[in-house]
Design a protein that fits this description.
244 residues, mainly alpha, 80% helix
């Protein structure tokens, strides 16, 4: 029973670090605020055009923009310590590096879940309120699964960026690399080959996007989890063997 308790203590300590890290707080608040503003703008534009856009549709349209905030949040838990001398102090307190990685990953998961839920919830509320104020055309009621799929997608993207940060170790390369994959490489490859569906973000997008002829929501999520596991395992092995 000692190991689970120790892991919980490490996770709590990592969450406390993130709570007091200005960059993490600003990234979380900024992602929520940008998401709300973007959702309101998209809903207002749809109403102005006389078109029906459900709150879920608006949230889906905003995903390519708000995912940047989740990527930043995923990169921060490890890279901010690596940038200074704090990682050496952390390793002195927690010499078992595998346990430290597990605690940091759980803390990153908790943070990304909180940010994703707050962002999607805020966007849904903003889109719904804006549509009502603008007397937008009514349409069929939204089901819950579209919004749940967006939350799951954002969390998976955040975890993938966290695993990438563990592997790359530095903030800028990890952030630029993940953003380039999601915003540039993935869309370009999707226009060239159907095999782009196996990229981590493309596979996870099936959770909320159009149906894929090969992947379902479940298998798409599993593909992304496999990417996270592969990158995270390689990062953990390397982290255990090299200096801070």
């Amino acid at each position: 029973m000692r190991e689970p308790v120790r892991l919980l203590n490490i996770t709590a300590a990592e969450l406390d670090k993130l709570r007091t890290l200005p960059a993490a707080v600003l990234a979380t608040v900024g992602t929520v605020v940008v998401g709300i503003a973007l959702a309101a703008a998209l809903a207002a534009f749809a109403a102005e055009q006389g078109a029906h856009a459900s709150a879920t549709d608006v949230v889906v349209q905003a995903v390519p923009f708000v995912q940047t905030g989740l990527i930043l949040l995923g990169v921060l838990p490890f890279s901010h310590e690596r940038a200074g001398s704090q990682l050496t102090t952390t390793l002195a307190a927690v010499p078992r590096r595998g346990l430290l990685v597990a605690g940091k990953t759980l803390a990153a998961l908790a943070m990304t879940v909180l940010a994703a839920v707050a962002t999607v919830g805020g966007m849904l509320a903003a889109a719904t309120t804006t549509a009502r104020l603008a007397d937008a055309p009514a349409g069929p009621a939204d089901g819950p699964w579209g919004a749940v799929g967006v939350v799951a997608y954002l969390v998976l993207v955040g975890l993938f960026s966290h695993a990438t940060a563990l592997l790359v170790r530095d903030l800028v390369p990890a952030l630029v690399g993940t953003l380039s994959l999601v915003l540039i490489v993935s869309p370009v490859l999707a226009g060239l080959t159907e095999h782009a569906r196996w990229l981590p973000d493309r596979a996870a997008a099936v959770l909320y996007g159009p149906a894929d002829p090969v992947l379902t929501a479940a298998t798409g999520g599993l593909v992304t989890l496999a990417w996270i596991g592969l990158v995270g395992t390689a990062a953990t092995v390397l982290f255990a063997r090299r200096d801070p």
